[in-house]
Amino acid sequence: MKLLLIKMSSLGDVFHTFPALTEAQKHIPNLEVTWVVEEGFASMAAWHPAVKKVIPIAWRRWRKNLLSQETRAELKAFLKEIKNTDADLVLDAQGLIKSGVVTALSRGSRKAGFDKHSAREPLAAKAYQEAHSVKKGVHAIWRVRQLFAKALNYPVGSEDQVSYGLDKSRWSLPKADAPYLVFLHGTTWVTKLWPEAHWIALAQLAAEQGYHVYLPWGNDEEQQRAERIASHGNNATVLPKMGLSELTSYLCFANGVVGVDTGLSHVVAGLEVPSVAIYGATDATLTGVLGPSVIVKSADYPCAPCLNKKCQFNDQHPPCYDTVGPSIVWSALMSKVVPHTKS
Questions:
Q1: What is the pLDDT of residues 101-115, one digit of tens each?
Q2: What is d(CA 46, CA 33) in angstroms, rounded to the nearest whole number?
Q3: Closest alpha carbon to 273 in 201, 166, 139, 144
Q4: What is the C-alpha to C-alpha distance for residues 320 and 72, in angstroms, rounded to an integer?
Q5: Which whole-number Å values give the CA distances from 246 to 43, 48, 240, in the listed order?
Q6: By C-alpha distance, which of 279, 280, 253, 251 is closest to 267?
Q7: Phi and psi at residue 270, in whole multiples of 5°?
Q8: pLDDT digits (tens, 9 = 90+) for 151-182
């Protein structure tokens, strides 16, 4: 069974698709997936054993300069590749106009996706011969699993059974002090940042239990924050700047991970590493981190989740995060991992 999967972005979308692929592969052992995905996520899409080929699309980059000769040449090559890709089924698991267009332009007599009442952008449904009804208002992982099951004709499993199916053997054990934790303190919105004082207190709790803490970073601001957190004790190390594959090795073999609403928290959930994901300004209900080894701790505050990029009270320390303080997060994490004590 050859499946051409259209699911272009974002990082969370990629990981939300893995459980559906795992379930599909269980029911269709000869499943071979070719995945059309944004170029920045191409390496991650290939992590799943059902994915035999990845076709990168650079729509985010192309749309900024559609008339350039280089863009036209890349777009032409992309269209040629999807038209030459043989598939028993083309499945649009995104439900956007842009993914619908790619579906319509691809080769394959069977084209399926969400119906107009289920798709995020109803016009996308016009690209399919088979449009499936999938309930809205539930988590994206469950919606994609239902779509796969209907399009590929197998019974969907229970909602609470989530398996990402990733093979950890592709990563090597890093040179790290064991036992260790990783703190994913960086994210995009300032209102999604857990207060720095909380990270410092959490690192101290980790030290009391004999854990080393590793602090990754991706920009100057995150590096400076990591250095400030590490300066308060001798059990924390600021990692050098590294690529996704190298960082994933640290995540993969960690005793536990604590993160905020960021793409890397989805990676951790996919690796099924014991973890806690902290949500304050944003809502985890529909697109948040989800997995068998992750606990989501959401702020319990009158205005949370506010979905605002600026806190009306204090950008540096939104009060909602005091309802998800260090002791609460630590207790949740320790419910997933075996505590260690200093020798």
A1: 999 999 988 999 999
A2: 10
A3: 166
A4: 48
A5: 13, 18, 10
A6: 251
A7: -65, -35
A8: 999 999 999 889 999 988 999 999 998 899 99
